[in-house]
Predict the structure.
Amino acid sequence: MTALLSVDSLCKRFGDVDAAKDVSFVLDSEEILALVGESGSGKTTVGRLIAGLENKDSGEVRFQGHLLPMTYGQKDFLRWGREIQMIFQNPLGALNPFFSAADVLAEALRFARSGKAMKRSELSSGTDFWLDAVGLQSSHRNRLPHQLSGGQRQRLVIARALCMEPRLIVCDEPVSALDVSIQAQILDLLRRLRKERGVSLLFITHDLNVVRQFADRVLVMYRGACVEEGATGDLFSNPQHDYTRHLLETCPVPAYQEPPA
Amino acid sequence: MSLLSIRNLKVTLRTPQGPVYPVQGADIEVAEGKTRCLVGESGCGKSLSMLAVMGLLPAGASIEAEQMHFAGQDLRTLTAKTYRRLRGPGMGLIFQDAMAAFNPVLRIGDQLAEAYRTHRGGSRRVAWQKAVHWLDRVGILQPEDKARYFPHEFSGGMLQRAMIAMTLITQPRLVIADEPTTALDVSVQAQILALLRDLQRSEGVGLILITHDLGVVAEMADDVSVLYAGKTIEEAPAKVFFDRLSHPYSQGLKACTPNWRAGPRPVEPIPGLPPPLNQRHQGCAFRYRCAKAMQICDQLPQMQPVGERHRVACWLTQRDQEITNAQTGEQP
Ligand SMILES: Nc1ncnc2c1ncn2[C@@H]1O[C@H](COP(=O)(O)OP(=O)(O)OP(=O)(O)O)[C@@H](O)[C@H]1O
Ligand SMILES: Nc1ncnc2c1ncn2[C@@H]1O[C@H](COP(=O)(O)OP(=O)(O)OP(=O)(O)O)[C@@H](O)[C@H]1O
Ligand code: SF4
Ligand SMILES: [Mg+2]
Ligand SMILES: [Mg+2]
């Protein structure tokens, strides 16, 4: 079986910073791979390179066996943009300030149909379905981004990515801004999509508590390079790299601690 | 001493679809040098109640409150001008959306320096040095270089730290931090939390920390307030919060908290949705989702003390409390 996504020696420099240095990994269909690492270690950059939002310096990215272009043109976005979706770390910046929640989803649904006309009733039932799936209410339909709360905007961005029914979703801190109950609901939804529609996820996060219960495998990045990779259970019970151990040690525990004297 | 004391805050917004009531009875109390964490579901009014405190609500919003005191001043009586002078040295807000706080075409260092000069004055050179100093304090490596970066050249976590630096640079007495560490990895997060704790010890800064991460609550909070649908429904010292919460919603919130040390246990969301905000609460806002709802829950429960610094708005808790009191022969 060929992997859904295979990344081979991917590199990207910004000035004198190696944001991605020789990054290689594979992602199977229906797999959830967590990408963890400290701030500035290159997680978002790797995600953006895969989604074609950043030009690659060198290396290969293959999707379903096809070699993805080093630099994306308009046509490439049309071809791959629907299959590989990205949920952005910063939802406000990713939303058009003049589009209501319903407009955002309608535009995405049209794009997913490659611009083919859709009946108004079809569009509006599609919009309602996805709003509901991420726990937004009908009262949020006509709100502009700044009229939604932080977590509601985040869920709108998630719904926009999901409604295009991609094969691969690069999720950049998708649930970090969400409270625990909504977080559980979104993770549930993602798990269901994987099972029912065979979606794969590259799940960028710093929240190890979420990784433990959600990911199949974990990839640890440090200063642009992959330093450890393994099945989630193994990595948590037997971390190899010092940086991974450090991550696990510093992860806050949700239980009362006596204040330091 | 109480630095900020808010009682029964209500915020009303006008929209083309009619008024919405996102905050309907928020109580928030912070003492000097102490931390109060604010937790609650997405959309429950955490950010808006803090914007109300900062005097930064969008146009067309109106506020009501029984009490709204900050450092001896009544916030309800402030003019726009005095409010502006109060922000910065008085109270500072670390926004939830770091990107939105920066101007995309100005260098990070200039934006920090400008914030400093607006409130503290001084020369451009001193202000720039301050900017570099604060970038350093929030853990940005090579701060002299990084101060020359534009916002889009920062990673998500770096931008969030720059945002924190921009708030702290004016040295406010009250810091309101809206999810300040959501995009930060654990080691940077620990560093930021330590910095905030430092400022509290050395300068007696009061801190309101909005977070959904109960790990952060455990590390930081002296007291915790739980909001549901715009209302404070429980407030308690941190220890009580983790050991014996009373309100059924607070209990549900804790039950769905992931913890990697507990293994790959999938957590259960609390079923159902919060009520729409286009009407004022008639009864307990949680009654549609509460497994323990009773007939009396159709009436609005008020916050009642159940222990030291521990108050709850729930009929069930109130009933249990009355039973206990009757057994021990105490007067309520
Ligand atoms: N457009 C850019 N120009 C210059 N430097 C950049 C640019 N984008 C990213 N960088 C740099 O590349 C490095 C990696 O950034 P990236 O956003 O991938 O980190 P990250 O792992 O996602 O971090 P975080 O957890 O903070 O979001 C950082 O040092 C950042 O400053
Ligand atoms: N300008 C606005 N017009 C109408 N409704 C608004 C507006 N701004 C916010 N709201 C609504 O008010 C409610 C409270 O918003 P707020 O931003 O305070 O939530 P929050 O508790 O901070 O949530 P989160 O954790 O998701 O950031 C939300 O349901 C939101 O949709
Ligand atoms: S007041 Fe009633 S409905 Fe509300 S939380 Fe208490 S028991 Fe449940
Ligand atoms: Mg990032
Ligand atoms: Mg908010």
User: Anything to note?
Assistant: Residues 57 and 104 of chain A are 32 Å apart (CA to CA). Chain A is about 40% helix and 25% strand.
